[in-house]
């Protein structure tokens, strides 16, 4: 083989590598930022190790499911402000069903909770499609409906959870440095998203979010795709509700700050608020980064009230920057 031939063989490989790096530049930047945050955390708290990473993964689990739920809808060109309320409703529904029941019934309760989440998401999607009212208005109104329904199921924190569910995100897989909570998250998200992403319905989500008119002219079923995105949002929100049940062992009817956290995480994770751009892995990494910010503030001894303000300002800044970028990318 001549030198010229070897050089020509390496050139396409180099071009392919550069193209892949350029396409995933944001994701690689998030990985570097996460590594830097972990290093900073270790400097602030030298004892931070496998136990700290396990706690980080468990704390991030419900937020990560919320972010994934929001990301699917935003990729399809919408937004869902009822994610936190759906998580609260599925959380209390699961806790009520599993209260004082056997371990085997916990499996049935989990399946029913996931079905409930899908039903809530489909309701959101159908109302958005049928009424043609903007997504933000419909889902904001339904967030109050789902929050009220959660209070009807449990007006105070209570219920229970199967022991196997509480043990599921605890500990490590093969080694203490690989948190079970993170493996559980990646398996649940991957089992749903990866097969869908390669099918026509998954491509349709991106097509509708990128250019709805062009997607319609190409024969993409717009209404069905929108409903599908909300159904997936409901499914992942239910997983988030189950993650709350696993973490606390009870049901809490009051929605947490998961809606705002999910929006901040998807913007930081590279999902465009204009739709049609981004993936789910970046959102998961962004959640870990945001949780590390809170952890570092705690280690630095910052007053919890000030820490909440700082964390809120960071999330608002991230959302505002994402909105500006989305407006600049939106065609005139």
Could you give a quick summary of the protein structure above?
By secondary structure, this protein is an all-alpha fold. The protein contains 14 helices and two strands.
Mean pLDDT: 89
Report the strand count: 2
**How would you characterize the largest beta sheet?**
2 strands, antiparallel
Termini gap: 53 Å
Indicate the multimeric state. single chain
**Total helical elements:** 14
What is the CATH fold-level name? ABC transporter involved in vitamin B12 uptake, BtuC
Shape: globular
Q: Indicate the percent of residues in helices.
A: over 70%
* Rg, alpha carbons: 21 Å
Give the CATH architecture.
Orthogonal Bundle
The unreliable regions are none
What order do the helices and strands follow?
HHHHHHHEEHHHHHHH
Give, in spatial order, the strands making up the sheet with the most strands: 1-2
Number of structural domains: 1
Q: What share of residues are in beta strands?
A: under 5%
